[in-house]
Backbone:
Protein backbone atom coordinates (compact mmCIF):
# COMPACT_ATOMS: atom_id res chain seq x y z
CA UNK A 1 0.00 0.00 0.00
CA UNK A 2 2.74 2.48 0.97
CA UNK A 3 4.74 1.70 -2.17
CA UNK A 4 1.64 2.23 -4.36
CA UNK A 5 0.85 5.51 -2.62
CA UNK A 6 4.41 6.78 -3.04
CA UNK A 7 4.49 5.73 -6.69
CA UNK A 8 1.14 7.44 -7.37
CA UNK A 9 2.06 10.67 -5.58
CA UNK A 10 5.65 11.07 -6.82
CA UNK A 11 4.85 13.03 -10.06
CA UNK A 12 2.41 15.32 -8.24
CA UNK A 13 4.87 15.97 -5.41
CA UNK A 14 7.66 16.74 -7.88
CA UNK A 15 5.46 19.26 -9.69
CA UNK A 16 4.10 20.87 -6.51
CA UNK A 17 7.52 21.12 -4.87
CA UNK A 18 9.02 22.66 -8.03
CA UNK A 19 6.23 25.22 -8.16
CA UNK A 20 6.51 26.20 -4.48
CA UNK A 21 10.27 26.00 -3.94
CA UNK A 22 11.28 28.98 -6.00
CA UNK A 23 8.96 31.32 -4.10
CA UNK A 24 10.57 30.30 -0.81
CA UNK A 25 14.16 30.17 -2.00
CA UNK A 26 14.54 26.49 -1.17
CA UNK A 27 15.45 23.54 -3.31
CA UNK A 28 12.54 21.47 -4.66
CA UNK A 29 14.29 18.30 -3.46
CA UNK A 30 14.32 19.67 0.10
CA UNK A 31 10.57 20.28 0.00
CA UNK A 32 9.98 16.83 -1.45
CA UNK A 33 12.06 15.20 1.26
CA UNK A 34 10.20 17.06 4.02
CA UNK A 35 6.81 16.06 2.59
CA UNK A 36 7.83 12.40 2.17
CA UNK A 37 8.91 12.39 5.81
CA UNK A 38 5.63 13.98 6.86
CA UNK A 39 3.71 11.34 4.88
CA UNK A 40 5.65 8.46 6.45
CA UNK A 41 5.05 9.88 9.93
CA UNK A 42 1.35 10.21 9.15
CA UNK A 43 1.15 6.65 7.81
CA UNK A 44 2.71 5.45 11.07
CA UNK A 45 0.26 7.27 13.30
CA UNK A 46 -2.98 7.91 11.39
CA UNK A 47 -2.81 5.77 8.28
CA UNK A 48 -3.12 7.03 4.71
CA UNK A 49 -4.91 10.33 4.08
CA UNK A 50 -8.46 10.12 2.74
CA UNK A 51 -7.60 12.46 -0.13
CA UNK A 52 -3.89 11.81 -0.88
CA UNK A 53 -3.50 14.43 -3.66
CA UNK A 54 -5.22 17.10 -1.57
CA UNK A 55 -3.21 16.17 1.52
CA UNK A 56 -0.01 16.32 -0.52
CA UNK A 57 -0.77 19.79 -1.88
CA UNK A 58 -1.53 21.09 1.62
CA UNK A 59 1.62 19.45 3.01
CA UNK A 60 3.80 21.05 0.31
CA UNK A 61 2.34 24.49 1.02
CA UNK A 62 2.74 24.00 4.75
CA UNK A 63 6.39 22.93 4.40
CA UNK A 64 6.95 25.83 2.04
CA UNK A 65 5.59 28.30 4.62
CA UNK A 66 7.73 26.68 7.34
CA UNK A 67 10.80 27.00 5.16
CA UNK A 68 10.02 30.64 4.40
CA UNK A 69 9.63 31.41 8.13
CA UNK A 70 12.90 29.64 8.93
CA UNK A 71 14.74 31.52 6.19
CA UNK A 72 13.37 34.83 7.45
CA UNK A 73 14.57 34.07 10.99
CA UNK A 74 18.11 33.02 10.00
CA UNK A 75 20.45 35.93 10.56
CA UNK A 76 24.23 36.09 10.57
CA UNK A 77 25.92 37.33 13.72
CA UNK A 78 26.32 41.11 13.78
CA UNK A 79 29.56 40.95 15.71
CA UNK A 80 32.35 38.49 16.26
CA UNK A 81 32.20 36.29 19.36
CA UNK A 82 33.80 37.75 22.46
CA UNK A 83 37.58 37.90 22.29
CA UNK A 84 39.61 35.50 24.39
CA UNK A 85 41.95 38.21 25.67
CA UNK A 86 41.42 37.30 29.31
CA UNK A 87 42.67 33.70 28.95
CA UNK A 88 46.07 32.69 30.21
CA UNK A 89 48.81 31.42 27.87
CA UNK A 90 48.22 27.91 29.19
CA UNK A 91 44.51 28.09 28.40
CA UNK A 92 45.23 29.42 24.91
CA UNK A 93 47.74 26.61 24.30
CA UNK A 94 45.29 23.95 25.48
CA UNK A 95 42.52 25.43 23.31
CA UNK A 96 44.83 25.39 20.28
CA UNK A 97 45.75 21.76 20.98
CA UNK A 98 42.04 20.82 21.22
CA UNK A 99 41.34 22.57 17.89
CA UNK A 100 44.26 20.73 16.23
CA UNK A 101 43.04 17.39 17.58
CA UNK A 102 39.52 18.12 16.36
CA UNK A 103 40.64 19.15 12.87
CA UNK A 104 42.95 16.11 12.59
CA UNK A 105 40.03 13.84 13.53
CA UNK A 106 37.75 15.60 11.02
CA UNK A 107 40.27 14.89 8.23
CA UNK A 108 40.16 11.16 9.13
CA UNK A 109 36.35 10.92 8.81
CA UNK A 110 34.86 8.79 6.00
CA UNK A 111 33.00 9.92 2.88
CA UNK A 112 31.62 13.44 2.71
CA UNK A 113 32.07 14.00 6.44
CA UNK A 114 35.41 15.88 6.23
CA UNK A 115 33.94 18.46 3.85
CA UNK A 116 30.70 18.81 5.80
CA UNK A 117 32.40 19.13 9.19
CA UNK A 118 34.98 21.58 7.79
CA UNK A 119 32.12 23.72 6.46
CA UNK A 120 30.34 23.58 9.83
CA UNK A 121 33.55 24.54 11.64
CA UNK A 122 34.34 27.31 9.16
CA UNK A 123 34.94 30.76 10.67
CA UNK A 124 32.71 32.12 7.87
CA UNK A 125 29.66 30.90 9.89
CA UNK A 126 27.89 29.41 6.86
CA UNK A 127 24.14 28.72 6.84
CA UNK A 128 22.80 25.27 5.97
CA UNK A 129 21.77 26.64 2.57
CA UNK A 130 25.31 27.86 1.86
CA UNK A 131 26.85 24.59 3.03
CA UNK A 132 24.44 22.57 0.90
CA UNK A 133 25.34 24.72 -2.11
CA UNK A 134 29.08 24.31 -1.52
CA UNK A 135 28.83 20.54 -1.07
CA UNK A 136 26.25 19.99 -3.81
CA UNK A 137 23.75 18.19 -1.58
CA UNK A 138 20.20 19.03 -0.56
CA UNK A 139 19.69 21.22 2.47
CA UNK A 140 17.27 18.68 3.95
CA UNK A 141 19.90 15.97 4.06
CA UNK A 142 22.41 18.10 5.99
CA UNK A 143 20.90 17.40 9.42
CA UNK A 144 20.94 13.60 9.12
CA UNK A 145 24.37 13.69 7.46
CA UNK A 146 25.69 15.97 10.22
CA UNK A 147 24.36 13.60 12.90
CA UNK A 148 26.03 10.64 11.23
CA UNK A 149 29.32 12.53 10.90
CA UNK A 150 29.20 13.70 14.52
CA UNK A 151 28.69 10.07 15.61
CA UNK A 152 31.77 9.05 13.63
CA UNK A 153 33.72 11.97 15.08
CA UNK A 154 32.68 11.00 18.62
CA UNK A 155 33.91 7.45 18.04
CA UNK A 156 37.23 8.78 16.71
CA UNK A 157 37.75 11.21 19.57
CA UNK A 158 36.57 9.03 22.48
CA UNK A 159 39.82 7.02 22.78
CA UNK A 160 41.89 10.23 22.60
CA UNK A 161 39.79 12.04 25.21
CA UNK A 162 39.66 9.01 27.52
CA UNK A 163 43.44 8.56 27.32
CA UNK A 164 44.13 12.19 28.31
CA UNK A 165 42.28 12.44 31.55
CA UNK A 166 40.90 9.98 34.06
CA UNK A 167 37.31 10.07 35.16
CA UNK A 168 35.82 9.99 38.59
Residues:
Amino acid sequence: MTHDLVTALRPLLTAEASAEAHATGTEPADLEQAVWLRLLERLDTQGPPLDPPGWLRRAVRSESRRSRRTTRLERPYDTEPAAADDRTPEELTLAAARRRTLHEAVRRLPGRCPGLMAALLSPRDLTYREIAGELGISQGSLGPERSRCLGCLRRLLTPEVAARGGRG
In short: Helices lie at 2-24, 28-45, 52-73, 89-107, 113-121, 128-135, 142-164.
